């Protein structure tokens, strides 16, 4: 599918956390195919290297930086690396997330904290870093990856849902606070997406919303929404959370609550 003008992202620099795999790789690829220079960041160097090779094979200007977004000092280094390698930053995509299915009574304090640290605190660290180093003086564009169930209750995902609800809130607050600085902040909330670690981890809990067929949601479907929000076509959209799940996210996880089991 090719509905955007060629080179719509020409001369733009896009930074994507968790950009080496799954949805993040899909976003990096699409942004690059439309002309962006792409920096991907995650914890695992070999996976980053492989994805940068894949991007370069598509003639995309791409690089990587190893970074644990839970660590503010590592995020500082990442921002400096983006400056040194590309000179500027136009779009930040906060995509990195941690997840595992666990009932509340199986969830340790550290398990809950770990997911909130990666998803919510990591998004905060990256958002602050991009603001301080780039966006506060020239404006910019932030797109957070959320989840449909952040807006309601869900079994076995209390940690992820709480973290994503926090991300939605941060999205709205930053959009209001930074409106006058020319910074737009939005979120995309994907349902189950084929060929992702999230789907692999949660597949036993998912109900018929992604059977891996070509009709099912692909990373490219999420990437198209991110590209739209990054583009000038969305110049008056900020503080918005767009669910991209064909309404399946409403009924995404159907594990019986302990009381029903
Ligand atoms: C219960 C678990 C657990 C499990 C880990 N923990 N896995 N608890 N059930 N299956 C607990 C550990 O016991 C530990 O607590 C704490 O979590 C931290 O675990 P570590 O392994 O030390 O943490 P770390 O190495 O930092 O790894 C973080 C991780 C990791 C989240 C646990 O697995 C990860 O990053 N995973 C993947 C990435 C991923 O799947 N991304 C896609 C997200 S999809 P204790 O108390 O023992 O110390 C998504 C949206 C999905 O977010 C929605 C649509 C379907």
Provide a descriptive summary of the structure in words.
The protein has helices at residues 22-33, 45-57, 72-86, 109-138, 158-177, 197-202, 219-230; strands spanning 13-17, 37-42, 62-66, 91-94, 140-145, 183-190, 241-244. It is of the alpha/beta class. Strands 3-2-1-4-5-6-7 form a 7-stranded parallel sheet, with helices on both faces. Strand 1, helix 1 and strand 2 form a beta-alpha-beta unit. The N and C termini lie far apart (43 Å). The model has no long low-confidence stretch (mean pLDDT 93). The chain binds hexanoyl-coenzyme A. Hexanoyl-coenzyme A binds next to helix 4 and helix 6.
Structural class: alpha/beta
pLDDT average, as an integer? 93
Whole-number count of domains: 1
Q: How would you write the strand order of the largest sheet?
A: 3-2-1-4-5-6-7
The ordered string of helix (H) and strand (E) elements is EHEHEHEHEHEHHE
CATH superfamily: NAD(P)-binding Rossmann-like Domain
Largest sheet geometry: 7 strands, parallel
Hey, roughly how much beta strand do the residues contain? 5-15%
Give the helix proportion (percent range).
40-55%
| CATH architecture descriptor | 3-Layer(aba) Sandwich
C-alpha end-to-end distance: 43 Å
Unreliable stretches covering 5 or more consecutive residues: none
Number of strands: 7
SSE blueprint and pairings:
Blueprint: E1 13-17, H1 22-33, E2 37-42, H2 45-57, E3 62-66, H3 72-86, E4 91-94, H4 109-138, E5 140-145, H5 158-177, E6 183-190, H6 197-202, H7 219-230, E7 241-244
Parallel strand pairs: 1-2, 1-4, 2-3, 4-5, 5-6, 6-7
The structure holds hexanoyl-coenzyme A.
Hexanoyl-coenzyme A is lined by residues 97-100, 102, 106, 108, 110-111, 114-115, 147, 160, 192, 197-198, 201-202.
